[in-house]
Structures are given as structure tokens and as C-alpha cells.
Amino acid sequence: MSAQPGSELISLKQVGAESLWKGMWRLLEGRRLAYVGSMLGLGIAALGRSSVYLLLGFFIDDVLSSPDFAAQVPLVALGFIGLAVVQGFFTYLSGTLAGRTGEVVAERLRNYLYDHIQRLSFNFHDRTKTGELIQKVTSDVDAVRRFIAQEATQFGRIVTLFLANFAALFLLDGELAWLSVICVPITILMSIWFFKRISDAYEDFQNQDGVLSAVLQENLSGVRVVKAFARQEYEQNKFEKENYEKYERGRKLLIWHSTFWPLSDIITGAQMLFGYYIGAQMTISGQLSTGDYLSYITLLVWLIWPIRNLGRVIVEMSRGLVSFERVSRIIREEREPLEDGQASLPERLKGELVFENVSFEYEPNMPVLKDISFHVQPGQTVALLGSTGSGKTSLVSLLPRFYDYTSGRILLDGVELKDYPRRYLREQIGIVLQEPFLFSRTIRENLRYSVGREVDNADIEAAAADAAVHDVVLGFPKGYETIVGEKGVTLSGGQKQRITLARTLLKKPSLLILDDSTSAVDTETEASIRAALKRQLGGRTTFIIAHRIQSVMSADLILVFDKGRLVQQGTHAQLLEQDGIYREVFNIQTMIEHEVEREVASANQGQ
Ligand code: UTP
Ligand code: MG
């Protein structure tokens, strides 16, 4: 049976919010009967095993000395065979049931985590390393699977084996039975003491494993940077350092384990010797028959076995529980609500925007936008200009509610932004992010991604043409079916930028944001994109972030930022009249352009 994601995702919602055991129980939903069945199966198999020894005692004491010995032997033999079959069948059955339950739970947990992680806020992703998330979805989920498929059922098996053998022993001789389990409280206390230490050591180990996979993931993603700066050795050292730390923590974990095992072996070994001795004494003094003594010593072996393993399993269960807690911590993270907000939602936004004393910070008390106020009429083009780190990207990130502003008000078509559901805003607002990202799929699929359904090829091609990339794509041997390599490596920087632009244009958003989206495109192509946008946009509010004055000078409103403050606003002509950053930047850029023109001219003359 395979898990059916949809229905199961809902029922898992509370896993993280409840106690560890309740969460585990919830995870088993739909498989509980099978799981309890697997434990019962182990119990029956254990009973079968204990009965073998009782039958052995009966055979020696009663059958061997019986007058119709020959008639009883086949019956006893049949009994032995029957018990072996029962044992084998139930061990197999419970192994399969538990194993399958473990797989189902792991699949369910992975699906849930994947869905959950992509619904967490930008804030969560800002502070979490991708590699660590990957490690939790893989390694920790696997530890939970092992816990359910093996350790928890082992625990059940051990307890039933212990009880069954103890009961069998008790039937033989009550006093002897009690004398044979003196070590149980000592073993349990010791396991609990070790459980705590091993849990801590394992958590340390898993944390470091997460760090290591984050380092690995980052190095591999940035392998081009590493090579470009010939920093392989530095990266190698960094990796070796973290890897050594993982080895160290793994060693500590192993030391705890390897201290525990011999200690528990000594205790149970002493118990076994003690049992043999007492049993022998009782047989010599005639309290116990030889057959019973033979049954006793084999039963004792199977009584000590679960005691010895109880400790191990308690200690090993700590891994599953620690991993489950690590996974639960992600599940407990609040999702970013997509459907909140009360506003009645028009089909399309008009695009009037009012910022009133808006401030914003990513981290408490570190404002990146301070007291911003401006007014955009529907259909206007707004340009944002400012040095790097001045807060332009942060400002436009507020509009689709990637982050919520800290104070002040933003009104979109007269309604406070926080009253719009995030999903609606993200459907209405098209944003071309500053760092272009494409999936490793075909160009067509990448373009279609923004609309999430089938679209006419004509529309795809028109959007690509507006972004001045249609001809480029046709130039590829496979055209729109070209597969974009991981991180878009089969495309140039400018091509990638233009495809991400086309992807957003295809969506025909009612408000468009271009964050430095033509920085890697030559001036001529940029001009053609601008012309196409003007044609296509007609009446759609557009935000353009750019560094070139040429890209911003025709805007209806230019906003100039400096260190998180809006220092100037107006049209090109108005700003040129003011003494300020805009005029400075304009002068510098035109001076550079004139210089270049002069140099080109003199180079031409010299030829
Ligand atoms: P921005 O990313 O808004 O700057 O960061 P910008 O104007 O767009 O810069 P360029 O032109 O793209 O380079 C504004 C401030 O916010 C901080 C940055 O450190 C910067 O000081 N910041 C940005 C954060 O603290 N967290 C983030 O996730 C992003
Ligand atoms: Mg930026």
C-alpha cells in the first residue's frame, strides 16, 4: 500500500504540536492495526519459542520414561515441528508488517515535510541552511523509519519474550523464576542513565551531520566560484574540519555505546551464572528434576537474552526519538498563511499605491527601510535608484508580502496591504527577482511555470519576444525544448535574465516589478525590451529597479534611496534641478558616456 499524500497531509498537521508519543501515534494513522498486529505476531512467535523448551522438559521427564514411548515420540516430534512453523510464520508476518509500516510512515513524513517546508515563511528560509533541511528530510526521517520498523517492535518483542519466558519459568518453579530476574531493575536503571547520555551525544552528532551537509551543499552550488578563485584548498580544509568534528562526535557516541554494552553484558552474565548455580543446587538437593533443570537452563538463556537486549534497544531508540524531535521542530514552525486577509478581491488590481511612513526590518532593531512615504497613481512607471544595500529589493519585497512591514501603512487600491491574502497578491503581482533562477527543465516549462497551466505556444513566444529572447531561443538546436542545466548553466547571464523576465510577462500581472532585471543585458537589447514593455504594459503599474540612469529617466516617478531612506522623489526633470544624489549620479554617468564616446571617436580617427 502506498501512502496517499492529500488526505494524509491534513492529519499530520498536529504531529509537531503534541507530545513525542502522541505525534508518533498520529503518524501511524491508518497503519495502527497492522502495527499492533506486528507486535502481537512477535509475541506469538516468542510464545512458540518458549513452548519448545517446556516441551523439551516434558519429553525428557515424562516421555522418555513412559512405557508407550514409541507411540508418543511422533506426537512430540509433530509438536516441535508445529511450534517451529508457528514461530517462523509469525516472525515473518510481523517483520513484513512492521517494515511496511516504517516505509509508509517515512514516505508520509517526507511528503509532509516537503510540502510544509515550501510553505514556511521567507524569514524561516533566510535563517535555515538548505543542506540542513535536506539532511532532516533524508537522514532524520530514515532514523524515524528505523525506529518504527525495527526498534519499537524489537522493544515489543523483548517485552513479550521476557514475559513469556518468565511465565514459563514461573510454571517450573516460582522461587527460581524470581531469583533469575534480580538483574532486571539494575539493567533498566542503567539503560535509562545511558539513554539520556546517548540521546545528547546522538543529537550533537546529527547537528554536526547537518552542518556537514550544509557545507557540502553550499560548496557544490558554488563550485564555479570556488574554481574561479582557486580556493579548492581552503574549501577542502573547511570540509575536513567539519568532517573531523563529525568523526569526533561519532566517536563520542560510539564510546557511550561501547561502554554500555560490556557493562550490561557483565550484569546479565553474572545473572546467568547465578541462575545456573542456584538451579544446579536445587537439582542436587532434589527440589528440581533433571528434565526441569534442562528446561530451566535453556529458558534462562531466553530470559537473559531479552534483558540484555532491552538495554540495547532502549539506548538505540534514543536515535529515533531524537530524530523525530528534530523533524518535529520544523513541523512546529508556523506556515506562512496564503489565504488570510479580509479584502474583497477584484479581478485585477488598478495599481494605486500609497506608502505612509513605512519602516521595515529583517532583524529586530536593525531597520533597513526608514519612514518611507510616496504615492503612485495607477498605471505609472516607478523607478527605484540607489546604491547597493540601500533597500530597493527590500521595498519591493513588501508588495507581494514576502515580508510584512514593521510600521506605517501601505495602501494598495485604497486597501491596507496586510488585508490582502498573500496568494492573491502573488497572483496579481509579477516580480522578476534580482537573482534569476530557472529549474532544470525545458525552457518552455520554465516559462509556463508562472501560470501553472497549459498555455498557447503563441502566448509563450509573444512573452519571449517582449523580453527580447525569442530569437535567442530559436537559435538553440532544440528551441523551446532545450533543457536548462542545473542553475541555468546552459544559458548566459543575460539570456537567463530575459527568460525569467518572459516568465513573469507571460503571467500578465496587474502590477509588475523588475528588480535589476536587465543589468546583464546590453544597452541596445535593454532599449528594445523597454519599448516592448511600454507597448505591452500600457496602463499597468510598474516598478523598475536599475542602476543605469537611461533605464530610469523616462519613469513617471523616480525614487532615490540612500541607506534605507527615501531621499529624493520626482520626475527626471524635477530631480535634475535639485542638488542631490540623482544629479550626481546623472553627471557621473553622462561624463563616463562622453568619455567613452570620445575614446571611441579618437580610436576611429587613428585607424
Ligand atoms: P537590499 O537587498 O534591499 O538592497 O538590502 P538593494 O538596494 O536591493 O541593493 P542592491 O542594489 O540589490 O545591491 C538592504 C539591506 O537589507 C539587508 C542588507 O544587508 C542591506 O543592508 N538585508 C537584505 C537583510 O538584512 N536581510 C535580507 O534578507 C536582505
Ligand atoms: Mg537589490
Report the β-strand fraction as a percent range.
Answer: 5-15%
CATH-assigned homologous superfamily of the largest domain: ABC transporter type 1, transmembrane domain
Strand order of the largest sheet: 6-7-8-3-9-10
> Quick one: how many beta strands?
10
Bound molecules: uridine 5'-triphosphate, magnesium ion
Computed over alpha carbons, the radius of gyration is 36 Å
Estimated helix fraction: 55-70%
Q: What would the principal axes of the Cα set say about the shape?
A: elongated
Total helical segments? 21
User: How many discrete domains?
Assistant: 2
Structural class: alpha/beta
What would the average pLDDT be, to the nearest integer? 86
- Largest sheet, described in full? 6 strands, mixed
Uncertain residue segments: 1-10
- The CATH class of the largest domain turns out to be Mainly Alpha
CATH architectural designation of the largest domain: Up-down Bundle
Distance between the termini: 78 Å
CATH topology of the largest domain: ABC transporter transmembrane region fold
Structure explained in plain terms:
- This protein has 607 residues and is of the alpha/beta class.
- It folds into 2 domains: 9-332, ABC transporter transmembrane region fold (Up-down Bundle), CATH 1.20.1560; 353-578, 3-Layer(aba) Sandwich (Rossmann fold).
- The protein has 21 helices and 10 strands.
- The strands form 2 sheets. A 6-stranded mixed beta sheet has the order 6-7-8-3-9-10, sandwiched between helices. Strands 2-1-4-5 form a 4-stranded antiparallel beta sheet, with no helix packed on it.
- The radius of gyration is 36 Å and the shape is elongated.
- The termini are far apart.
- Bound molecules: uridine 5'-triphosphate (UTP) and magnesium ion.
- Magnesium ion is lined by residues 392-393, 434, 515.
